[in-house]
Amino acid sequence: MRKADPIQVRPRLRLVRAFTYFVLILGAITAVFPFLWMILTSLKTYGEYALRDPWPKALTLLPYRDLPPTEDVVVDLYPIEEGTWGGAPQSAQPLLEGRIPIEQVSTPVAEQLSRKGEAPPLEVLILAADVTPDVEGYDTFYLTVGSRVIQQETVRVRLGEGWKAPYYINAPDMERWGPQLIIVDNDPNHFVVRKTWRPTVMLIFNYIKSWCEADFARYTWNSVRLTFISVTGVVVFSTLAAYAFARMQFPGRNAIFTAFLATLMLPEVVTLIPNYAIVIQLDRFFERVLHIENAWLNNWTALTIPFMASTFSIFLLRQFFAQIPDELYDAALIDGCGHLRFLLQVVLPLSRAPLMSVIVLNGIWSWNAFLWPLIVTSDETWRPITVGLSKFTMEAAAEVHLMMAGAAITIIPILILYFFTQKQFTEGIATTG
């Protein structure tokens, strides 16, 4: 037969390779796009999201984040006509307002906006809800930059006491959003606006607000504890079971392992109701016999113990353990090692890569668990961050920017885990056959 000309084959291979790269790049962009949309949306204000702006305007202001404070601008406040704030209670209505041009607050920002053709006059609107110098109250100002509305709430205190942080920030020295307000004298009708811009705080404000409103601190701590307990149990029991299937001889070993693998074909929803029924019976047994209430339901036991037997993890480790040469075990046996010592001193040190794969995979599965924790918990005591995020999405409703900030908070720990373990994770998958 006549062989193909290498010169003719080479362009075909290049074309196939180029097409393969194109498909892979297109798939990567498709997979990354929702993540980028979530991050960008989490940095926007409500107005920017409603107007479908593709880019948060705070990012365009980052070059001015290091502007030092310059001279102060005094703002006089004037009474507001009563009843102009939508029927809000009198205690919640601002009493005074004042306006100053944007040029007096941040000249570089005004120049940048002017170069972009945004010529309409921009003003800082300052609203005072409490004008009593002896009583602490909230002062709110809004700075409109194009379609962006920036809001800050600060606590007003008497002269000399210094600044207290807003309610959503614990640290008293935290940078505040936008130009800073300070009181210049005992007359509560005068304020000072410093010419300082804080776009960094603008970018993380949604994250701070979501973290505080949804009590993500409690949910995150719950998820960390549950993930640690679950992954620890999976590693211990999967290692022992995988070693038994790979290195120990007993009747029916292959048949049991085959039946064990068959459970991978069962959808999680199929086992949901039986698992819940078992947990209910266990909870009743502990309450009736041992007089322990909520030993399983609404407790860490129901959230972790049922999932410590991971079929996939056992299969993954068993495949790697089976590749270890028998000569190593024979040499260890001559030195007086039993199965347990051989497992701890020989097998596990050689199995760092597959063990890391088991830790990463089960850590992701445990962290992302939603339906089962939602069923077996009734309050926030042990609810993980996924259930907390679901509750927050119902409360946030139309505030999609806050929902996306909460979602970003939820996935940050998993991204950090994978970033530091991706080499071992890939190696573990590749070496387990």
Radius of gyration in whole Å, from Cα?
A: 31 Å
Helix content: 40-55%
What is the correct CATH architecture of the largest domain? Orthogonal Bundle
Q: What is the fold named in CATH at topology level of the largest domain?
A: MetI-like fold
Our estimate of the beta-strand percent is: 5-15%
Q: Strand tally, please? A: 8
What is the overall silhouette?
extended
Question: In words, what does this structure look like?
Answer:
This protein is an alpha+beta fold and 433 residues long. It has three domains: 6-42; 60-197, no CATH class; 214-430, MetI-like fold, CATH 1.10.3720.10. The chain is 55% helix and 10% strand. The chain contains 16 helices and eight strands. It has helices spanning 6-42, 46-50, 57-60, 107-115, 199-213, 216-247, 253-262, 268-289, 300-304, 311-321, 326-334, 339-350, 352-368, 371-376, 385-396, 400-430, and strands at 72-76, 78-79, 96-101, 123-128, 137-145, 148-156, 181-182, 190-194. Strands 2-3-4-5-6 form a five-stranded antiparallel sheet, with no helix packed on it. The chain is extended, with a radius of gyration of 31 Å.
For the structure shown, list the relevant keywords:
single chain, 433 residues, alpha+beta, MetI-like fold, 3 domains, five-stranded antiparallel sheet, three-stranded antiparallel sheet
